[in-house]
Design brief:
The structure holds 2 protein chains of 2 kinds. The longest helix of chain A is centred in the N-terminal third of the chain and has 30 residues. Chain A has 5 helices and no strands. Chain A is mainly alpha-helical. Chain A has a domain of about 45 residues. By secondary structure, chain B is α/β, with parallel strands linked by helices. In chain B, strand 3, helix 9 and strand 4 form a beta-alpha-beta unit. Classes of the chains: A mainly alpha, B alpha/beta. The interface between A and B is large, with 46 and 60 residues.
Chain lengths: ~110, ~400
């Protein structure tokens, strides 16, 4: 590891199950890399639309304008919304009091033969 | 935060800025987006979990709600949504720094060449190799920035400042303006608006790091001589080169705000921005005493920092206190419980010459500077925000402690 990435101050553990903290960090890092690659693909498409050759130097030199920045930000927010969708769904179900008990009772009512 | 608002704020390019190649910049954009998403989606989700699950459970057991943030934390600590929020928030902070460190790995020589080719703006840099860096800076990497303000051993002289400069921009998601200077700019405006006849000739910024908040003073009080100090050589070195690169003259010195080598009465205005909460119990009163000593008669001390916990509800306190535990900010919460008025009086200020106030955010100004990403619409969005615990910037303004020395 790059020694310049080590932080002084013990990293807290958020989850009781060993490995979940590690896994969460890996997932979020992969999500970061996915978004970076998506932006690169977007640059390639935009170069193509402008009839420019897709070369490393053209990709590097490409500077997104305001509309492109907004398109990319909207796409990332959509992606993050999906990434966190179970989390936000759990919160929403909490607020509507949509519980496991209600689910079980519904099965009893609708599907259990009397 | 308004969910329809699309944040595309971009940092102003200057000769010392390191943002890396196209992929590095894309990773950094992700960090801003992630932090935005945490505020827009996860924060409201955990607020629901607290008020609909943790609070009723606590109240059912104890017959009363939690009395303070410590009790609230115990009540909420095992909530799965809270844990997820805390872990993702921490990771956003980690990815923020690594995305810049990767960019810096390629930047060594270029950064040095850029620093050497700057045209002098009239500022200066004075380092003190014998200065003992206080424990509150050296013993923990505040904000989880690897290497902290002084940088890792053997780090390039400009890398730590460059990391902080870009990292702060990502942390603030651009809400501090294209130069990360909204706090300094807001306090300058506050002084000008409330004291139109006050013309400080010499200004000192305490704990200036890379000079984000310092430069507006030189810009908005062009007649004044502006000095800025920090304990970290790495910070003031970068601050000096950044200021020269932006053509703004400031005298940066490596000094400790608890005890400087300036003479009594050297300054008309002594300021600090988000410094106090990164010091300690022992250091904070010393800084107040030193500010009083350094002020000329009629001079003003202004500390822009975190608002005290006094009038905040327990849930707000709990969310804010997360910084203490999960973002390496040991003094963050304790500082908010200090009686800063009493501390100012003990330092020598008259009681009726000390008060808390709000300095409105200066962000509207950026909109008129022709930067596309800082549109008027975007600036208005920020100005109209209501304060929400856990969101980066308070809506509307910064908390300031203002004390004036008798004439």
């Amino acid at each position: 590891m790059n020694p310049n990435k080590i932080v002084k101050g013990k990293r807290p553990e958020f989850y009781e199950t060993p490995g979940i903290d590690l896994l969460m960090h890996m997932v979020m890092t992969l999500a970061q890399e996915h978004c970076a690659m998506r932006d690169r693909l977007d640059t390639i498409e935009r170069l193509g639309n402008e009839g420019q050759p897709v070369t490393s130097s053209n990709i590097e030199a490409y500077l997104p304008d305001q509309t492109t920045l907004e398109d990319r930000e909207k796409r990332r927010q959509k992606f993050l919304e999906n990434l966190f969708s179970v989390l936000t769904q759990n919160a929403a179900q909490l607020s509507t009091n949509d519980t496991k008990e209600r689910f079980d009772a519904l099965i009893d009512e609708l599907a259990t033969e009397s | 935060m308004n969910k329809d608002f699309i944040n595309t704020f971009q940092q102003e390019v200057h000769p010392l800025l390191v943002d890396g190649n196209a992929d590095d910049r894309a990773r950094q954009e992700y960090v801003k987006s992630l932090k935005t998403s945490i505020q827009q989606s996860l924060l409201p989700a955990i607020s629901g979990a607290y008020f609909q699950r943790a609070l009723p459970a606590f109240a059912a057991e104890k017959g009363r709600p939690p009395e303070d943030h410590r009790e609230a934390r115990k009540a909420f600590a095992d909530d799965p949504l809270f844990k997820a929020y805390l872990s993702i928030n921490r990771i956003s902070q980690e990815l923020q720094w690594t995305s810049v460190i990767d960019a810096l790995a390629e930047a060594g020589q270029q950064l040095e060449d850029n620093a050497k080719s700057l045209l002098p703006a009239g500022g200066s840099l004075t380092l003190d190799p014998d200065l003992e860096v206080p424990k509150y800076v050296s013993s923990i990497d505040i904000h989880c920035m690897p290497g902290g303000y002084c940088g890792p051993d053997g780090a390039h002289a400009l890398h730590t400042g460059a990391l902080y400069d870009r990292g702060v921009y990502l942390y603030a998601m651009g809400y501090m303006g294209p130069r990360n200077d909204d706090m300094g700019r807001s306090v300058c405006n506050y002084v000008k608006r409330n004291h139109p006849d006050y013309k400080p000739r010499r200004i000192l910024d305490l704990g200036c790091t890379v000079g984000h908040s310092t430069l507006p003073y030189a810009e908005l009080f062009p007649e004044a001589e502006v000095h800025a100090i920090d304990v970290a050589a790495a910070c003031v070195t970068y601050a000096h080169h950044r200021a020269e690169g932006l053509g703004i003259p400031v005298h940066f010195k490596q000094m400790n705000a608890e005890s400087t080598s300036y003479e009594d009465g050297s300054f008309d205005l002594v300021v600090s921005h988000i410094l106090l909460h990164e010091t300690s119990n022992k250091a904070m009163p010393k800084i107040f005493h030193e500010a009083y000593r350094l002020l000329a008669p009629g001079g003003m001390m202004i500390h822009a920092d975190l608002p005290p916990f006094d009038n905040m509800d327990v849930y707000t306190q709990l969310i804010l206190d997360n910084e203490t535990w999960y973002n390496n900010e040991p003094f963050w919460t304790a500082m908010r419980n200090k009686d800063q008025i009493a501390m100012s009086v003990a330092a020598g200020f008259a009681e009726d010459a000390v008060a808390f106030d709000t300095a409105p955010m200066a962000i509207m100004e950026f909109a008129s500077n022709g930067d596309d990403s800082y549109s008027e619409e975007a600036a208005k969005e920020i100005e109209d925000r209501e304060f929400e615990a856990g969101e980066y910037a308070p809506g509307g303004g910064w908390e300031v402690l203002v004390a004036r020395k008798e004439d």
